[in-house]
Predict the 3D structure of the following.
Amino acid sequence: MNKSLYTILTFARINTRRFFRDRIAIFFGILFPLIFLFVFGGIFGNNSQANFHVSLINNSKSDFAKQFVDQLKKESAFKIDEDDKTLDAAKEKMVRSQIDATIILPDNFGAIDQATQTPKGQAEVYYTQNTQQSGQTMTTIIDGVFRDINKNITHAAEPFTVVGKQINQKSLTSFDYTFAGLLGFALLGMGIFGPVNVFPELKKQGILRRLSTTPLKVWQYFCSMAISQSIIGLVSIAVMFIVALTVFKLEVVGNVLVLVAFLVLAIIEILGIGLAIGGWARNERQAAPLSNIITFPMMFLSGTFFPRFLMPEWLQGATAYLPLTPVIDGIRYIVNEGYGLTQLGPQIGLMLGWTVVIYIIAFRVFRWE
Amino acid sequence: MNIVSVKDLRKVYDDKPVVDGVSFSVKKGEVFGILGPNGAGKTTTLEMLETLRPIDGGSATIDGIDVAKNPDAIKRLIGVQPQTPAFQDKTTLKEVIELFAAAYGEKVDVLQFLRDVDLEEKAGNYVEQLSGGQKQRLSITTALVHGPKVFFLDEPTTGLDPQARRHLWDLIRTIRDKGVSVIMTTHYMDEAEMLCDRIAVMDNGKIVALDTPKNLIKALLKRGFKKTQQVEQANLEDVFIDLTGKALRD
């Protein structure tokens, strides 16, 4: 066997084994991302339709009011809370943003009008300056409910109507979005914080210095790190997938081999950032701030925790070229939309470009001590 | 036959000469000691020969190869024992030897190398379970995996108990007897006197004396030096060894 290859494989093998012997490394590499998965899965996993949290105060004793309340409760857009008895109590909650708005049915609501012998009344919707949009949307929804009721009472035909129809296609759920982002987060954690934490310690103890008296080359060392990091990263991501599939019912459309190949490239790319920072830094005091400056903006700007389309357009344009953005987009395209490697050309191209740039920097700035 | 020859070696940090024109040569199978107070330039001299620091002036060759021009070839000729050996934890002794051999692209009989330093029964242990003396021994054997011609040791016995020191001396003599040239620094004069075939004394970046320990002492006596105290038949270390035995401890 080629001597260089033997060197790389031996270092990779022993480095990988060391990881799986180290409980702290296992915690941060595998369990830590899982905790995030559970937290974010818990938040975004249940795709409930309750968009508005509403306090309802029913001051009327009429039958119509009672029926109307029951009707509102069936409305999936509302989460109705009947705890508050007065507008002041509800106001306090609105100010704290615990609820979005308050619906009040006045005491004469639903009383029978003597002239027409039909019930009538006016519901009131209260909202704050910050929740205008919710207030107006709710007013519209309730208006729709009233229109149906009115139609039944007056039997008048309406010339214009609108009806919502569901098309036979799924869109991405918030969990689908979150999951790709969480994989990106796990990659960042392992690829950057791994070497950034380990290298300064190795330098402090003179372990890297000792290695530098042997013919071991930096590129051999980097290759061995890339191999073992890919193995560790794939194990960690496999665990996340198993949890996502079983607990959060993640729908995977894409091909697993495509995903594995894509992830290996992603792991190597992100690891390069860690190798560059950790390899450059002489000690923790240099490594920690630099890695935070690089990691945190990327974490938030590359669509890790929320989709990039929520950003202003100029920011979307700028963040599209960050090293992590094509990784998260690519994972999403493969997992949710079943893209093949050829369709991922723009993402893979961008990642390869970054990989070359990052590793050139990493080689240049690497210091054995 | 000279295996190492150093001529007018210089190192300057911030315009201050740390190594200021050092010249010496080391024969095959010799233990060469470099003595001197802290800051004398001992470690910097070693580090230049070990290819860890660029050489600012003068020249150094090992086995005829220029250190400055061909550091990669030099690395295959030398073994290096750092002042405080350290290894990544959660690594077994066996794996440590494998790693160092692999750094040279070689595969070796791991257990034989552990046997050489009495660590065979610890082969499966993690390095963090070793004592200071055991770490020193492991470090020495890792420096020899590729069969170097010159072996550098920087203060190898600092912090060791008398038993471990004596054991290390035996080990260094064994290595020398195999034909390896040993270059070491130390702060212990008894160690230098017993172990080193020749000694260079450095101060302020310069070699102020270079000879065998015996000749250096003779020269001093010739200049009329007299010890104020009567030489005793035994010292406290002899008492210590007599009481606690020579057997190596963990």
